[in-house]
Amino acid sequence: MNRLMSLLLAAGYAMGQAVFLFACHPVRLHAAGGGPGLVLHDVRLFGLDLDGFSVQDIGRAQGWVPQLVFLVLCSGLTYAVLRSAPPDARPRLRTVLALLGASLLAAGVAELVGPALDPRSPLLLPTSGEWVGRAQVAGATALPEQYALWSCWLLMPSWAAAWLLRRWAPVRVLLGTAEGAAGGAESPAPGSTVRRRRDVVCAGLIPMVLLAVAGGAVLRHTHVRQLDQSSSITFAPELWLPYHPPALVERWSGVLYPALRMRPLDTEETTGWLATLVVCLVFLAVLAAALYAVVRWAEGRHPVRLFMNCWYATVLAAVAAALVESGLLQGPWAAPREGAGPTALVRPFEAALGDAVRFGAVWGWATGACCLGAVWVMTRRGARTRPRVQEEQLSHAE
After folding, report:
1. Beta strands in the chain (DSSP E)
2. Phi-psi region at 89: left, alpha or beta (left = phi > 0; alpha = psi -120 to 50)
3. Considering only CA atoms, which of 247, 241, 327, 307 is closest in space to residue 105?
4. Is the CA virtual torsion 244, 245, 247, 251 positive or negative?
């Protein structure tokens, strides 16, 4: 897409988000006729928290820095995605999904920034148990991710308007098609083959499969044996716990997806492990399909585009797995929201969404790096073998 058009769309999108994030809570307080201490009820859109991520306390860095990080990162990624879109400005599914992945990636980074600014948090990277505690205290979880899920569609009206008015002279100038520039559908790179794409996808799945074999750090379900009846009379505290991860895994458990696990645990029942395995297979299958589509359209182009699109694909695959997980694995996440009554609960989908996006934001770069490395190796190998093939053809011609 034209640079000026991409800049206008991304700037308008960022401006709308900034106005909403920094003005929504004060406007609601003013409309309710209360002071800063007034507790407002939740506002939801399609089941997602509408304004939970808005700035509510400008006096603390923790209250506005994550929102600022989200705005800056989301604006930059949105501009990059729009610049890589076809020049005719037609909204395409892959570009929309890339915008959604960019927004969720920015939300994951913003959520990870929050605990680092909290003076009460002893660690820069909270463990899985600390994330659960923070969700129970706040009465909500995955607020940046919920905001990203619904706010990413705010760009669609202006983008659709540009597409509908594409034949108008001022819009044609913005799109860069005033002189009849080609605006057809983008075609795959001519040198890409099915076998080459398949090899790149297999390389990109390596880090996620390794993490799945290593297993998640915590259990999302309650199908566990609380006590081993065959044990001796000697009291062993580990037998009463659902699962006790190693110290290294526990330290990184806050950015590991609990449902991404292929191996059963000692205290886990078969039904719980099978449900976890289904979620894990869904994640890997969706990621493989997404990487295949990404490699098909990004091969032969700028390597940064391939790297970032693979990162977006990892985040989106984790969100798809979270949708399945929220229906299969119902964990003990229900906690009353402070000041909102006993019926307000932290929903399983919100808990799964937060874990999934944090995981994709922290580990998605590994998928992109492996895909980029595989493309680089195959490109160098092809460059070495091409002169030999040409020499053989010349010798046969002589």
Report:
1. 44-45, 48-49
2. left
3. 307
4. negative
55: tokens are: 């700035």
24-44, pLDDT tens digit by residue?
877 777 776 665 555 566 777
Residue-wise DSSP of 227-262: S-TTS-SS--GGGGSS----HHHHHTGGGS-TT---
Task: Copy the structure tokens of residue 325.
Answer: 């997980």
Q: Which of 159, 161, 148 is nearest to 77 (CA)?
A: 148
Query: What is the rounded CA–CA span in Å between residue 239 and residue 98?
Result: 45
Q: Specify the length of the chain in residues.
A: 398
pLDDT, mean over the chain: 77
CA atoms of 332 and 102, how far apart (whole Å): 30
What would the two tokens of residue 276 be?
């976890």
Selection from 58, 46, 37, 29 nearest residue 339 by Cα:
37
Query: CA–CA separation, 386 vs 21, rounded Å?
Result: 55
Residue 91: CB atoms within 10 Å: 14
Q: 173 burial class (0-12, 13-18, 19+ CB within 10 angstroms)?
A: middle
pTM: 0.82
Q: Which amino acid is at 165?
A: L
By CB atoms closer than 10 A (0-12, 13-18, 19+), residue 235 is exposed
Structural tokens at position 232: 């001796």
More reliable by pLDDT, 305 or 166: 305
Q: Which two tokens stand for residue 125?
A: 């990277």
By the 8 A CB rule, do 272 and 221 touch?
A: yes
Beta carbons of 139 and 335 less than 8 angstroms apart: yes
The strand pairing partners of 268, in sequence order, are 224
Chain centre distance of CA 273: 24
- Among 149, 109, 114, smallest CA distance to 134 is for 114
**SS3 at position 96:** helix
* Angstrom distance (rounded) from CA 278 to CA 282: 6
d(CA 78, CA 152): 10
What is the per-residue pLDDT across 163-217, written as a single tens digit (0 to 9) for each? 787 777 777 776 665 554 444 444 554 445 888 888 899 999 999 999 888 766 5
Query: Residue 9 phi/psi, 5° resolution?
Result: -65, -45
CA distance 267 to 226: 7
